[in-house]
Design goal:
Elements (H helix, E strand, L loop, with lengths): L14 H27 L4 E4 L1 H11 L1 H22 L4 E11 L10 H6 L10 E15 L1 H68 L5 H36 L6 E4 L13 H11 L1 H21 L5 E12 L7 E10 L7 H67 L6 H35 L2 H4 L1
Parallel strand pairs: 1-4
Antiparallel strand pairs: 2-3, 3-5, 5-6
């Protein structure tokens, strides 16, 4: 416990003044602690993410995937609406009214009206109460049946389009993940270049102090060092930009700190021949199945309009109570069958038939276009994969030779045989070789993703 004793110099101050001073000291002492707590609370949350995790997150959160799910729900509701036209439609009403009737309007002669006590033809006011349920049931209608089948096919189209969108999102997120990994590797490469420049600058200064090198050699290395610092800043900016693009595709909050757990590396893989790859794509690509379903939808829509020419049969009925007083209303009913025969509607039906026939032809044309697009994507992906595989091997060999060249140039400069022009040239070659290897590895992994997407096997890749 700390006790405060007022000193002789504080006799003029009141205890309240002393209390305020103590409170101020406590606040000053606590302020750094509060600042540290605020700084800790502002640290963005960390999210460690593998490629597989990124794909799963995109499927759950991506805006386009969520919109397509809602489109499926809307298509299913439209199908249920079409089905409702084939099921019984029952309604009811209760009506109470006070009215007068002009009997002369029904063709009753005036002399008879006078005999009935209605000389003017208009009755006295009276009450009518009517409570009734009605039923309408379509017994036979090819048009409504085909319309319902078309609506169900529309749901199938929405499901397949959602599948196409999901696979597109998976491949897009995979490519963005690879771009983020490429940016990470570029930052590492620039940091390695920077460390090398610092080592070579130290070597140049040591050689100058020993009287072997000149001030120009030192200046040349200083320029190289600043260039590498500039390139590091650019790479770090691209690294952050790549992460933002990935976060946007994932549909998660931007205030997270992403840590990518996978690496940009070469993985040997078995590659099918063009014909086998195309056969796999024709079997698996959701775009082809979606387009086939669109063709079916167009045909059913045409059939629905064409079958409007066929007579339709429906059942109509009602049952209820009607009378002048609610407690004295007797039960009545009506039941009947209606045969509707279309004869002429001003040519509207024929125009809609012609319109739907055109849609059938359009979907057939699109089918060929989709098939050609699938073939193009598969062949391009195979070519890119083969080329990128070779590029990785060449880039690895190039980096190995560039590092060997740098070692030779460094030894020659350290021995005082040459200026450091050879060293700076070798530095540039090493930096270029590192970039070539990073780009080759990115192209290889991107081509793997593109080939899996083209073959319809994107789920198996991850």
């Amino acid at each position: 416990m700390v006790c405060f004793q007022p000193s002789p110099g504080l006799k003029g101050y009141s205890m309240r003044t002393l209390s305020w001073a103590v409170a101020g000291i406590i606040v000053i002492l606590m302020f750094p602690l509060k600042s540290m707590a605020d700084e800790h609370s502002q640290t963005p949350p960390e999210l460690r993410l593998s490629l597989h995790d990124a794909i799963e997150a995109a499927i759950d959160n991506n805006v386009n995937v969520r919109l397509l799910r809602e489109r499926i729900a809307a298509a299913q509701s439209a199908a249920n609406t079409s089905l409702g036209a084939l099921l019984p439609n029952v309604s009811g009403y209760v009506n109470g009214r006070n009215q007068t009737v002009n009997l002369a309007a029904f063709g009753i002669p005036q002399d008879k009206l006078s005999g009935l006590g209605v000389p003017g033809g208009v009755t006295s006011p009276f009450d009518v109460y009517d409570a009734r349920a009605t039923l309408v049931q379509n017994l036979f209608s090819l048009s409504l049946l085909q319309r319902w089948r078309a609506a169900k096919t529309g749901t199938d189209v929405a499901v397949l389009e959602a599948e196409v969108t999901k696979r597109d999102v998976m491949s897009t997120v995979g490519l963005l993940y690879m771009e983020a990994l490429r940016a990470d590797e570029a930052v590492k490469a620039r940091q390695a270049d920077l460390r090398l420049s610092e080592e070579l600058l130290k070597l140049a200064r040591d050689r100058k102090d020993a009287g072997v090198a000149t001030g120009l050699d030192v200046t040349r290395e200083e320029v190289q060092l600043e260039n590498n610092r500039q390139r590091l800043l650019v790479s770090q900016n691209e690294q952050e930009s790549g992460r933002l693009n990935l976060i946007r595709a994932l549909g998660i909050a931007f205030d997270v700190r992403l840590i990518l757990t996978d690496e940009l590396k070469f993985t040997a893989m078995f590659v099918q021949g063009p014909e086998d790859a195309l056969a796999t794509a024709r079997q698996n690509r959701a775009e082809l199945r979606a387009q086939e379903t669109r063709q079916k939808l167009a045909s059913l829509s045409l059939s629905s309009v064409t079958n409007e020419r066929v007579p339709a049969l429906s059942l109509n009925g009602d049952y209820g109570w009607i009378g002048l007083k609610p407690d004295e209303a007797p039960a009545t009913r009506t039941i009947g069958i209606t045969l509707s025969v279309p004869i002429f509607d001003g040519g509207q039906r024929e125009s809609r038939i012609s319109e739907n026939r055109s849609r059938v032809r359009q979907e057939s044309i699109r089918m060929k276009d989709v098939s050609d697009q699938v073939t193009l994507e598969v062949r391009n992906a195979l070519l890119t994969l083969e080329s990128s595989t070779q590029q990785v091997a060449v880039a690895e060999k190039g980096l190995e030779l560039a590092l060997k060249e740098l070692a030779f140039a460094r030894d020659r400069f350290a021995a005082g045989l040459v200026t450091n022009i050879e060293v700076t040239n070798a530095q540039t070659s090493v930096a270029r070789a590192r970039d070539n290897l990073i780009e080759a590895l990115f192209r290889f992994n991107a081509s793997r993703i593109n080939l899996a997407r083209a073959k319809g096997e994107i789920e198996r890749l991850f």
